[in-house]
Amino acid sequence: MKNPSTSTGLVIAVIAAATFGTSGALVKPLLEAGWSPAAAVTIRALVGGVVLMPVAAYSLRGRWSALWRARWRVLAMAAVGVAGTQLAYFGAIQRIPVGTGILIEYMAPLLLVASVWAISRRRPKPAVLIGSAVALIGLVLVVSPTGAGGVDALGIILALIAMVGCALYYVVAARPSDGLPAVAFAGFGLLLGGMLLGAVGLTGLVPFTLTFTDVSMFGAQSPWWLPLVVVGVVSTAVAYAASISASEILGSRLASFVGLLEVVAATFYAWLLLGEQLTPAQLAGGVLILLGIGFVRSDRPAASSRRLARKSMTMMRASGPATGYPTSGPVRMTSASSASRSGQCW
């Protein structure tokens, strides 16, 4: 089966960012009606998981063993990608400005670049470094963080934990699927993550408040469950399934940079649906993020060429004496492909 192209992965990643970005505008009416952030996120994750369950079960028909083989990956997604990162972020913005919290969390792509640099001891190509710097400047312009409220050490620490969690989300999402469909991975990860969030909420470690009165949604009164259903289906079920699919295709680094478009999309939806101000600086920041993604994306063709060359060499060796190459020794024709899909080929 032919692997999806990078272009296909980019389209899916943009869909993920666009759907993730709707969550702020959809959840805000609930928060204004008295819902606590942890309660809204918990119900959102549970709704998303329940929505994906029928599709997940259908995709797993006859191969439920794939779910068992991926149990630790699913648990990591639930504990880190769904529950841990959300709790750290909302804990942070209770102590520091929202813009500062978002800025720190979405520096996750830079953390991934720095981590690989430190582990491999090989400096990333200039295109990656330039793209990282340009995207960071764009992120600052879009978020427009302020110093209002002072600096709270615990808030900064929690935001940094959210950043690490965000980076780990992309690493886990980009790991080889081993036969587990992305929709099943997303569905079970969301369902288990929602249960973990609910358990934390019941302990009282974070505020956990729900209200069941009508909410003001885009200028009209709506039942409290309507924004939850929309955010559960669009901003959660579709978004997580698309994000995981894109990460498996693009690898963790490029997928995380494209994920920065979520901040741009959220700002756009806030302007379009909530009437919040959209400044020229934010528009310029969105353009810079796109340029940064372009720089990071430009590094992939060379890596693809190297993988193709290695695969061709392996095939020639496997062909035996007719081509002048020995047949002794193990032949691993899929190792390069697996590494690229898991984000290991940087």
Helix content: over 70%
Structural class: mainly alpha
Order of helical and strand elements: HHHHHHHHHHEEHHHHHH
Low-pLDDT segments, ≥5 res: 301-346
The strand order across the widest sheet is 1-2
Q: How many β-strand runs? A: 2
Please give the largest β-sheet.
Answer: 2 strands, antiparallel
- The average pLDDT value, as a whole number, equals 83
Question: Beta-strand level of the residues, as a percent range?
Answer: under 5%
Number of domains: 2
Instruction: Report the principal-axis shape.
Output: globular
First-to-last CA distance: 24 Å
Task: Kindly summarize this structure in a few lines.
The protein is mainly alpha-helical and 346 residues long. Helix content is 72%, strand content 2%. Strand 1 and strand 2 (220-222) form a beta hairpin.
Characteristic key phrases:
2 domains; 72% helix; mainly alpha; 16 helices; 346 residues
What does this structure look like?
Helix content is 72%, strand content 2%. The protein has 346 residues and is mainly α. The chain has two domains: 6-124 and 141-275, no CATH class; 304-318 and 330-346, no CATH class. The chain has a two-stranded antiparallel ribbon with strand order 1-2. Strand 1 and strand 2 form a beta hairpin. The protein starts with 5 loop residues before the first helix and ends in a 5-residue tail after the last helix. 46% of the residues are buried.
Explain the layout of strands and helices.
Layout: H1 6-20, H2 23-32, H3 37-59, H4 65-69, H5 71-93, H6 98-105, H7 108-120, H8 126-143, H9 153-173, H10 182-203, E1 215-217, E2 220-222, H11 225-250, H12 252-258, H13 261-274, H14 280-297, H15 300-318, H16 335-341
Antiparallel strand pairs: 1-2
Helix pairs in contact: 1-11, 1-13, 2-11, 3-5, 3-10, 3-11, 5-9, 5-10, 6-9, 7-9, 7-12, 8-14, 9-12, 10-11, 11-12, 12-14
